[in-house]
């Protein structure tokens, strides 16, 4: 069997979202799991709507998720000479013909067909046939080129998701494959690209199903066998609508900026239409070991941000403190803050409370910013009472006298103050947390204080 070659072929007419990027994940995974090649192709023939900014989001999003390509990116607009070469070949072989029907004539034809309850379609007026008299060629009109679709028989393929699909050729009209100015159309370019790039498997969204029989017929007209197809069900947003920019879908790079981990995103996206038993959490390596086309789901998958955050939290907890510290340091730098040797330990202390690296950076920033996150008026009123202030003052005095600033020394000092003031731990710990961290809820107080600057802690305790 030939080497697996898959492709991702986005159109840069809008910012790529999770529904789109899933159509990159599966062909990438299939190529990687079978030792094949993954090709990136930018289908930018819609010149008016294509933007460089959208291309940048595609490239950034794929790089962030680690969906590396072996070839490309190829740009269709740079392949125009090749498409025109194949068009000329097809003209010479009688596989296409010029059609002079105007847009107005086509519209009128469709209206008549719909009024007669017929499927609107081109009626073959300009299709040459033996003995057929074609209309006179109108003066000064540039024709489109139409593909001479077979008029009998059926197009059949075994879809890896949908199963066996059959479409009668009489249901398909003669497709326009070149516009009046000679530029080729989408369905034609795709076939030429897939032939030239030796694509063996096309894994794409099921919004392309209607294009597939037309493309298969063009493959066969060019003497080539079509690839294996797998048409993925739609990804729905949380409201149950098709995920799209119009429906508020976020660019995939926004999830990066919001602190999601690439491996967690791969894990979550993989489960939006594929499964390995009941496994919900898995590494990238496990995913590539398990992935196949036989366990792709047939039903639409629905995005659920709560579930995504849970998956991200599990991956975050499983990461080493040192690896997390690298990511948090990058985010601290965006806030004009810099960490120190304590940052890995801070990440380890707080990661169980966080579902994104942004949330973890929020905690970490409290250790490095001179400006304290202010506790709510309610927390201050509840915990910073007149009765507890003498204990806080005593704690500050005793902490200032410490020659060693570590967890054990701080814990012993806290115990001394509790005994001297006849207090229980929560009675002192909650107010101290409010003063030094801006919240009454943190991990163990001695661990938190040990990781902070002694000077900063004393300054905050004395501000009561």
TrEMBL record:
Query: Which Pfam families does the UniProt record give?
Result: Anticodon_2, tRNA-synt_1c
Enzyme Commission no: 6.1.1.17
Coarsely, its chief localization is cytoplasm
Write down the superkingdom of origin. Answer: Bacteria
> InterPro entries from the entry?
aa-tRNA-synth_I_cd-bd, aa-tRNA-synth_I_codon-bd_sub2, aa-tRNA-synth_I_CS, aa_tRNA-synth_I_cd-bd_sf, Glu-tRNA-ligase_bac/mito, Glu/Gln-tRNA-synth, Glu/Gln-tRNA-synth_Ib_cat-dom, GluQ/Sye
User: What do we know about how this protein assembles, alone or with others?
Assistant: Monomer.
Q: Which family does it belong to?
A: Belongs to the class-I aminoacyl-tRNA synthetase family. Glutamate--tRNA ligase type 1 subfamily.
What job does the chain carry out? Answer: Catalyzes the attachment of glutamate to tRNA(Glu) in a two-step reaction: glutamate is first activated by ATP to form Glu-AMP and then transferred to the acceptor end of tRNA(Glu).
Under the heading HAMAP family, the entry gives: Glu_tRNA_synth_type1 (MF_00022)
Question: What protein is this chain from?
Answer: Glutamate--tRNA ligase
List the gene name.
gltX
């Amino acid at each position: 069997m030939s080497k697996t070659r898959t492709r991702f072929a986005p159109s840069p007419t809008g910012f790529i979202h999770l529904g789109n990027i899933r159509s990159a994940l599966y062909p990438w995974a299939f190529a990687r799991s079978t030792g094949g090649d993954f090709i990136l192709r930018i289908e930018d023939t819609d010149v008016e709507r294509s933007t460089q900014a959208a291309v940048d989001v595609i490239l950034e999003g794929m790089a962030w998720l680690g969906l590396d390509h072996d070839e490309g990116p190829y740009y269709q607009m740079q392949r125009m000479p090749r498409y025109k070469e194949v068009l000329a070949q097809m003209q010479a072989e009688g596989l296409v013909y010029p059609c002079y029907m105007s847009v107005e004539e086509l519209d009128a034809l469709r209206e008549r067909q719909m009024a007669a309850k017929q499927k609107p379609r081109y009626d073959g007026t300009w299709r040459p046939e033996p003995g057929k008299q074609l209309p006179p060629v109108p003066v000064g009109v540039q024709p489109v080129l139409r593909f001479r679709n077979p008029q009998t028989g059926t197009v059949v393929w075994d879809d890896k998701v949908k199963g066996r699909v059959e479409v009668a050729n009489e249901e398909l009209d003669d497709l326009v494959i070149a516009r009046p100015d000679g530029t080729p159309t989408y369905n034609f370019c795709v076939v030429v690209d897939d032939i030239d790039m030796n694509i063996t498997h096309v894994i794409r969204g099921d919004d392309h199903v209607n294009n597939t029989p037309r493309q298969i017929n063009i493959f066969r007209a060019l003497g080539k066998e079509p690839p294996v197809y797998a048409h993925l069900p739609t990804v729905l947003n949380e409201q149950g609508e098709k995920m799209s920019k119009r429906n508020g879908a976020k660019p995939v790079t926004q999830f990066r900026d919001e602190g999601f981990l690439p491996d967690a995103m791969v894990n979550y996206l993989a489960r939006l239409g594929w499964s390995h038993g009941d496994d919900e959490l898995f590494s990238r390596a496990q995913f590539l070991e398990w992935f196949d086309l036989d366990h792709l789901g047939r039903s639409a998958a629905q995005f659920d941000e709560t579930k995504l955050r849970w998956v991200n939290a599990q991956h975050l907890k499983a990461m080493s403190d040192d690896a997390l510290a690298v990511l948090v340091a990058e985010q601290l730098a965006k806030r004009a803050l810099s960490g120190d040797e304590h940052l890995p330990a801070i990440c380890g202390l707080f990661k169980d409370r966080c579902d994104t690296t942004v949330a973890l950076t929020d905690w970490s920033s409290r250790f490095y910013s001179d400006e304290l996150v202010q506790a709510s008026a309610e927390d201050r009123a509840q915990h910073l009472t007149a009765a507890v202030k003498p204990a806080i003052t005593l704690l500050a005095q005793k902490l200032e006298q410490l020659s060693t600033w570590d967890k054990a020394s701080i814990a012993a000092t806290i115990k001394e103050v509790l005994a001297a003031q006849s207090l229980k731990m929560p009675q002192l710990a909650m107010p101290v947390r409010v003063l030094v961290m801006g919240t009454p809820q943190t991990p163990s107080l001695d661990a938190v204080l040990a990781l902070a600057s002694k000077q900063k802690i004393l300054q905050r305790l004395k501000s009561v």
